[in-house]
Design brief:
By secondary structure, the protein is α+β, with helices and mostly antiparallel strands. Helix content is about 40%, strand content about 15%. It contains 15 helices and 17 strands. It has a 9-stranded antiparallel β-sheet, with helices on one face. Strands 9-15-12-13 form a 4-stranded antiparallel β-sheet, covered by helices on one side. The protein has a two-stranded antiparallel ribbon with strand order 1-2. Helix 1 runs antiparallel to helix 4, helix 7 runs antiparallel to helix 8 and helix 9 runs antiparallel to helix 10. The two termini are about 45 Å apart.
Length: about 525
């Protein structure tokens, strides 16, 4: 867009937006993959574990040096006696020394050999065990990689080699990394996708034979068996049988493998003359629109422009805001230079002290479901001088009254951090739910202001799938839109989402503005009941 800042006449803003995350689950596990900013302690933990392992290795080495240093001494005396045993043992001093060594020294050597090494290091490890990521964390991390792959249509081999959406990074995935993702997909009933990852593991196994300690090596039979299961689930029985036969070559006496081979042979015979064509699942138009917007290839109107806003409040006559039109339906505005680097830094530091995994509130039954991979913290608008200043700025941006609006929510996105398609309004007019009566007193979410507190190297755009808008995070900017029509009903065109972050740590701050205080600011024309 060619941005020439022009002053425009007033518009009746018709807008949209986000749906809510109102609670974090403090009792949940740490959820390491849900926030990039909360992950640095894991590097510190790994560093302590490495130091601990090195101390353990040093103790083992010290014991090894003791053994290796004394073995030649003992062997020299033994070989001296074996040259002529009778002559050697005829000397009572030699006979006595042999009996004493065998009765005393070797009992002591036995005690030394079984003496545990590294007990302090093992105690250290036990103490840190609770801080290690759990299976759920690994599942979240695997899901993040897969989400990035699918949304941005990346090739598995490119991801493995560190090429992400066209950019090459000096990083790659290990065989164990690839296998973990393949296992995650297979267990999640995504066998077709799992096959792509597991085949890469199969191709790399020989390379790892001498590069990885035996106890860390992925076993070939384990990979082949999982691949066979995936092919069998996809009804590729011939391929599954071929893989199982390779497994039998590695372990010919495995009863379970023999049984699986027999069962698969029967399936091959049954289906050899049957052509199975699985009907294609029709594509979801909104889902397609979402992925196109995330990839930045959605078609949108180009007849938009930029202008200075000096009308919303009197203060703007002195310091007008730079505003860029994102789109007209819904009407979304991008404001430039509305939050300073110092303010962004302070907000992030405030949030870091108490980041928690975010749940998503659903009006229907008030159920919680993970629609997004983030951690967040709520901050009261009157928390300090800085937050009060930002509150006044939001008033300048929107012209709305924030008296009864929600607290600020500061959010940090995790690995592949995303927020599925959602709307910010609740549509209370269509809901009968006593659990939301208190919130209803404040009215629905009439508008949303979303501040970007950081740049994002790749991915992480905010998109409006129905309109094709794609807004990339840029520190210091903020987007604003109305969620409700003037009659008080929700605007469906404000459906939006946060695309997965590919590389970077995405920080945003959201302010949801409620209806109640807008009675004399922006009157609604609700139809009579």
């Amino acid at each position: 867009m060619d941005c020439k800042w022009k002053k425009l006449p007033g518009y009746i803003l018709i807008l949209q937006v986000i749906f809510a995350a109102v609670h974090g689950n403090s009792k949940a596990q740490p959820n390491h993959a849900l926030s990039v900013a909360s992950m640095p302690p894991l590097l510190d933990l790994e560093n302590k574990l490495i130091d601990n392992l090195e101390d353990y290795a040093n103790e083992l080495e010290q014991k090894l040096q003791t053994l290796q240093g004394y073995v030649p001494v003992m062997r020299s005396e033994n070989e001296k006696g074996k040259l002529n045993a009778i002559s050697y043992l005829s000397n009572p001093l030699n006979s006595f020394s042999l009996i004493r060594r065998l009765q005393q020294d070797w009992l002591k050597w036995q005690s030394y050999m079984v003496q545990p090494v590294g007990t302090v290091q093992m105690r250290n490890f036990d103490g840190w065990w609770k801080d290690l990521p759990k299976k759920a964390d690994l599942g979240d991390a695997c899901a993040a990689i897969v989400r990035i792959q699918i949304i941005y249509d990346l090739k598995v081999e490119d991801i493995i080699r560190g090429k992400l959406d066209g950019r090459q990074y000096n990083v790659s995935l290990s065989t164990a990394d690839i296998f973990a993702i393949g296992q995650h997909l297979a267990k999640g009933k995504a066998q077709a996708e799992a096959i792509l990852w597991l085949q890469e593991v199969q191709n790399r196994l020989q390379e790892d034979l001498f590069a990885v300690p035996d106890h860390l090596t992925i076993k070939e039979i384990e990979v082949l068996k999982l691949l066979a299961e995936c092919h069998a689930h996809k009804k590729n029985y011939s391929k599954a049988l071929s893989l199982l036969e390779k497994c039998l070559m590695l372990n010919p006496h495995d009863a379970e493998l023999l049984r699986l081979c027999d069962e698969t042979k029967e399936l091959v015979e049954i289906h050899q003359n049957i052509t199975l064509e699985k009907p294609k699942k029709p594509e979801d138009p909104l889902g397609v629109a979402f992925t196109l917007a995330c990839r930045g290839v959605a078609k949108v109107s180009g007849r938009l422009h930029c202008f200075y806003n000096c009308n919303t409040t009197s203060f703007l006559r002195l310091a007008p805001l730079k505003v860029e039109e994102v789109g007209l339906d819904p009407y979304v505005l991008l404001h430039h230079e509305v939050i300073t680097p110092k303010e962004s830094k302070e907000l992030k530091e405030l949030a870091l002290s108490n980041l928690r995994a975010s749940g998503v509130f659903r009006v229907e039954g008030a159920a919680f479901k993970r629609m997004r991979t983030v951690k967040s913290r709520w901050i009261h608008k009157d928390f300090n001088k800085m937050t009060k200043g930002i509150t006044r700025r939001i008033r300048d941006i929107t012209g709305l009254d924030l008296t009864t609006s929600e607290k600020f929510q500061i959010i940090n996105y995790g690995m592949g951090g995303h927020y599925n398609m959602h709307k910010d309004y609740f549509n209370y007019t269509n809901v009968d739910n006593t659990k939301i009566s208190m919130a209803e007193q404040l009215g629905d979410r009439i508008a949303t202001v979303l501040f970007y507190l950081s740049d994002v190297e790749q991915g992480g755009a905010t998109v409006f799938p129905k309109s094709g808008y794609t807004i990339y995070p840029r520190a210091g900017t903020a987007i604003f839109w109305y969620n409700l029509h003037t009659d008080g009903l929700g605007d469906p065109s404000t459906l939006h989402a946060a695309c997965p972050v590919i590389v970077g740590s995405k920080w945003v701050m959201t302010e949801w503005i409620r209806e109640l205080s807008q009675l004399f600011v922006r009157p609604c024309f609700k139809p009579s009941t």
